[in-house]
Design brief:
mainly alpha; two-stranded antiparallel sheet; 4 helices; about 60% helix
Length: about 160
């Protein structure tokens, strides 16, 4: 049987992750001229993947480790999407940046951004939707080096 709530949740996540990333790209690049639909797909897929990883980890897992695992997953996705849709480097171009690899489809510094800037945002969005909108039983908690950094505020 089809779970409509689950489909609705994923449609919301796809739109939120893809749109937020495209907005970041527009701001970063100063316009719409270098946007490509594959970036929306990469962001939506990466955000959902990070959310799924987050759902499989316990809140006991260190938040930095969660972000690092998510960032590695997104970087691998960037390499795969890049080899399919960015062969002429029209979407992104890391060829002139140091520490670029996999035919310059991945850059170490951007992987750090995915890990420690965008992954936390994706994790928070996923947890906010699960806890507040879809009424998950477990209240999100984030630990850093074994200490509680933040508890999601209680639902009303």
């Amino acid at each position: 049987m089809i779970n409509i709530q689950r489909i609705f949740r994923y449609l919301i996540l796809i739109l939120v992750y893809g749109s937020l990333y495209m907005l970041c790209e527009v701001i970063w690049k100063g316009g719409f001229d270098r946007l490509h639909w594959s970036m929306f797909v990469l962001a939506a897929g990466g955000g959902i993947l990070v959310g799924q990883l987050n759902n499989h980890f316990s809140y006991e897992m260190d938040f930095l480790l969660q972000c690092l695992i998510g960032g590695v997953a997104i970087s691998i996705g960037e390499g795969i999407i890049g080899h399919i849709f960015n062969v002429n480097y029209s979407c992104w171009d890391y060829r002139t940046l140091p520490l670029s690899f996999w035919d310059s489809q991945i850059n170490f510094f951007f992987s750090l951004i995915w890990s420690f800037l965008l992954c936390p945002i994706a994790i928070f969005i996923d947890d906010i939707l699960d806890y507040y909108a879809f009424k998950s039983d477990e209240r999100p908690c984030y630990k850093l080096f074994g200490k509680v950094l933040f508890h999601m505020p209680l639902r009303k």
